[in-house]
C-alpha cells in the first residue's frame, strides 16, 4: 500500500497577502491619466452620464436595485478634496431613491436594499464640486413585486 502525501500549502495565501501589502505600501502618486485635458480655452468634451440597472428583474425580486453609471467628460473627484470649489471638468454623483436623501458620492456603482413593494424611481445626477447639478441626469425605474399598500389608483 502506498501512502500519498498531500501537501497543503498555506504559504501561498501568505505570499498573496505579502504581495498585496507590498502593493498597498507603494506610494501611488495620484497622477492624472490624461494630461491632454489641461489645455485652457479648448472646448471640454461634453459631460454625460449613462446610468443602467444591473439585473433589474432579479434584483427587484430581492427588493434591491443596483445602479452602474458611466461618466464621460468629467473627472469624478471627491469634492471635499478641493474644498467643494466648482471647477470645469470635475464632478461627482448624486443618487436618490424616490424622495429619500441625496447620496453624494464618487462611486459609480451603488446598490439599494430593502425597497418597498411597488414602483420606485432612482435619480442619478452629475453634480459639480459645489453639489450643484452639472446638467446630465437620468431617472431609472424599478418595480419591486409584492402587494402595494398605497391606493393611488
Ligand atoms: Cu454633491
Strand percent estimate: 35-45%
Mean pLDDT: 80
What small ligands are held by the chains? Answer: copper (II) ion
End-to-end Cα distance, whole Å, is: 78 Å
Summarize the biggest pleated sheet: 5 strands, mixed
- Pairing-aware structural class of the strands and helices? mainly beta
Question: What coarse outline follows from CA principal-axis ratios?
Answer: elongated
Structure explained in plain terms:
- With 153 residues, the chain is mostly beta strands.
- The chain has a domain at 46-144: Immunoglobulins (Immunoglobulin-like), CATH 2.60.40.10.
- Helix content is 14%, strand content 35%.
- The protein has two helices and eight strands.
- The protein has helices spanning 11-25, 56-61; strands spanning 48-54, 65-72, 75-76, 90-97, 103-105, 109-112, 118-127, 133-144.
- Strands 3, 4, 5, 7 and 8 form a five-stranded mixed β-sheet that branches. The chain has a three-stranded antiparallel β-sheet with strand order 1-2-6.
- β4 and β5 form a beta hairpin.
- Bound molecules: copper (II) ion.
